[in-house]
Amino acid sequence: MFGLLSQVLVSGISLGSIYGLIALGYQLTYATSRTVNFGQGEALAAGALVGLSLVPFVGFWAMLPLVVVFGGLYGLAIERIAVAPSLKSKSEGWILATIAVGFIVKNVAQNIWGKEDLAFPSPLPTISVQIGSAFITPAEIMVIAASLSIMALVEVFSRFTLLGRAFAATGDDREAAGLMAIDTGKVIAGSFALSCATAAYAGVLIAPITPTGAGMGLMLALKGFAAGVLGGLSSRLGAMVGGFIIGLADAITAVCISPGYNGVPALLVLLAALAFRPEGLFGKILPQKV
After folding, report:
1. What is the pLDDT of residue 197?
2. What is the rounded CA–CA span in Å between residue 26 and residue 23?
3. Cα-flanking dihedrals φ and ψ of residue 131, to 5°?
4. What DSSP string describes 33-54?
5. Across the strands, what pairs with 118?
6. Cα distance between residue 72 and residue 69, in whole Å
7. Are 46 and 218 in contact (CB under 8 A)?
8. What pLDDT is stored for residue 126 in this prediction?
9. pLDDT digits (tens, 9 = 90+) for 166-216
10. Which phi and psi angles does 129 have, rounded to 5°?
11. N or C: which end of the chain has fewer CB within 10 A?
């Protein structure tokens, strides 16, 4: 029994680190503009597929920074095409616009890489390592370590850099930030670049342990969004904690009920959070201007 619980815990942490990283991407844009990219799953899938194409030429480790750069450029394009016009007109059009761009990207990806799932080469051995009474693969260890490292770097960036403080100031009051000579348009664009860079990075992290394809990001993005809503889209800590809660719920469901139902907990959590605590466990109720 203890061995089973240990295995569930290890699996939950591995899944939760990815969900938390995706949730962090949602939080970064929400914190500056109160918007999110509902095509985040396509950003994740595009990062994984671009990484798959680069690996034969540059290797896995050299591919990682290239995919991060690709994700950043992708985010800038999303902000410029789908978000900036809506913010300028003060409308909610960014919701449908980001969804539409996501559909377009998915269609393009299917035409380039095909509709069938592909195998992503792992840079690490596939033999499981025993930790206590649980087993974990080196790829899962890499996922956990790399996800936590990126979360820590984003936290340092947000707390101790001028640009990170500009992110916070823009989120608190965009008009006041503009009066303080902060270019809020560039800050919002930067938040989308960072958001999609983390999504693309998450894609290549999880690709070696899951089928890779144009549709791989849909459920991952939904679970990441559920994690963000649960933890609070205004809180980076909430994104991480929400990710681990959803990951553990997935692992428990897969073991106790069936792997076919492991997407259900995220949906139930999302519905419950929206109904009873829309600001999230660590979020705060943001003042609305009238």
Report:
1. 95
2. 5
3. -120, 105
4. HS---TTHHHHHHHHHHHHHHH
5. 212
6. 5
7. no
8. 76
9. 888 888 778 888 878 888 899 999 999 999 999 999 999 999 888 899 999
10. -105, 135
11. C
The DSSP output letter for 81 is: I
pLDDT digits (tens, 9 = 90+) for 120-164: 988 888 787 777 677 788 888 888 999 999 989 988 988 888 888
pTM for the full predicted model = 0.91
Contacts of 55 (CB under 8 A, 6+ apart): 63, 120, 121
* Side chain identity at residue 140, one-letter code: E
Q: Which CATH number does 2-276 carry?
A: 1.10.3470
Positive or negative, the Cα torsion across 106, 109, 111, 113?
negative
Distance CA 48, CA 53 (A): 9
Q: How far apart are CA 12 and CA 24, in angstroms?
A: 18
Contact in structure between 104 and 45 (CB atoms under 8 Å): no
- Three-state SS at 137: coil
Strands in the chain per DSSP E: 129-131, 134-136
Domain extents for the chain?
2-276
d(CA 149, CA 134): 23
